[in-house]
Amino acid sequence: MTLDTRRVNANVARSAAGVLSCAHCRQELEGTAENYLTLLPHYEGPVTDAGPQVCADTAEFIDVEIVFRQYYCPGCYTAFRTEVVPRV
Question: What phi and psi values does residue 5 have, to the nearest 5 degrees?
């Protein structure tokens, strides 16, 4: 990270010019601090991808389909956000 760069969070930095980048590999990211996540590539799969601690049969508890979703850096593939959410 250069002197004119500040961390937005653990994974994202913002330059003095307002450009976002990955704090790990410096890959430039699209968007703003408010919407960059929606513009990142992401993986979406079955809830079981979240690990054995997550119930695989969500139909017992909820009426909508639930998925595992992970947003990641397009440069180094660091996971920026992982969630178990209803399919949109």
Answer: -115, 140
